[in-house]
Amino acid sequence: LLRHLLLKLRASGPLTVAEYMREALTNPGQGYYTRRGGVGESGDFVTSPEMSQVFGELIGIWYISEWMAAGKPKAFQLVELGPGRGSLTDDILRVFTQLASLLSKCDISIHLVEVSPKLSEIQAQMLTGGKVQSSPRDDTVYMKGISKTGIPISWYRDIQDVPQGYSFYLAHEFFDALPIHKFQRTEKGWREVLVDEDPEVPDQLRFVLAPSSTPATQNFIQPEETREHVEVCPEAGVLIQRLAHRLEKDGGAALIADYGHDGTKTDTFRGFQNHKPHDVLKAPGTADLTADVDFSYLRKMTQGRTATLGPIKQREFLKNMGIDLRLQVLLQNSRDTATQEQLRHSYDMLMNPQKMGDCFHFFALLPHHRLTHPDQKDNLQPRAPLVPVAGFSELTLK
Ligand code: SAH
């Protein structure tokens, strides 16, 4: 991949950080996700659903709670973006099975958006036991199967190919993998950061500043910006617009969980290999590259089509979802001390402010009518109170 990038640079000049990140992560032959996939204990980074079943269970309950608040529609699609090893959907499906009596009349289907052939194979194994049909010549649905619990699953490369309809969207540690542009404030104004060949060291890359303003500088930097360095992820913006359009038209909800900030951080672009920090410009394609999600940008890109909730810290969201109760039940039901120890350890990883509790955030998109009554000026009838959205406010037990 480095050779390919050097040839490209020599032919047409420096790359934007976004082009570099896209190549490093999802180049069809040599990209990090396409080739390695890296998620899990033996990979380069471990995510919350890989750590604990409770994480996915509580998210499953969040969707059921939204489904009930919407008046139990007859059908829904669960659409996961970047499902990794498939553990999160697997845990959610277990909850759906446990609550089968509630969901029995509902027609549920699963839709996974995944670019990595390697990870989609792992997902198929996890969710269906490997019983899938591939359709390599079909551009839209490239694989189909039935979950171990009897629910149809389809795989796509792009969200645009997922059928429209009432849907619950899920993106966990997905947005941080989308390519970012980087900008630096200089005495001459904003300049885009680019990736170029280092003239001093053979076959090594380095960051340079564009000599003049680029179209991206003009389009992505807000006039009121006060930071010295800014990262912008236009692909995330386009995706949020698509989700907001779909939710406005068909209803449902989107839950986005990732590490991020609300438009305050500057340089967050970093790499991981083997659970250790990795120079982002070294050996592209061999390490996970990531940047914090700017939730304020996501909120702006909904363009008011949906309401948004959050970002709220992971430990607050999970607490509001009842993680403490769930832990107690699992501890009571586990027979050996090793299992109890493992349950406590994974709870600590998810909730401890120094671990994943504070840096990961939950953010939701919901149709406006979910949070506010439509304006009914002529109707003076008292309105039924709106059901609070689980996870985003304190849990009250009745
Ligand atoms: N959600 C999982 C995995 C996170 S890793 C978890 O929390 O464990 C990021 C995931 O997004 C991987 O499955 C990766 O292959 C996928 N991915 C990255 N870029 C993508 C893109 N542009 N389109 C679709 N999937 C992508």
From TrEMBL:
InterPro entries: NDUFAF7, NDUFAF7_sf, SAM-dependent_MTases_sf. GO terms for cellular component: mitochondrion. Signal peptide: none annotated. It is found in: Mitochondrion. Keywords: Methyltransferase, Mitochondrion, Transferase, Transit peptide. Belongs to the NDUFAF7 family. It comes from Nothocercus julius. The keyword Transmembrane helix does not apply. This is Protein arginine methyltransferase NDUFAF7. It comes from the Eukaryota.
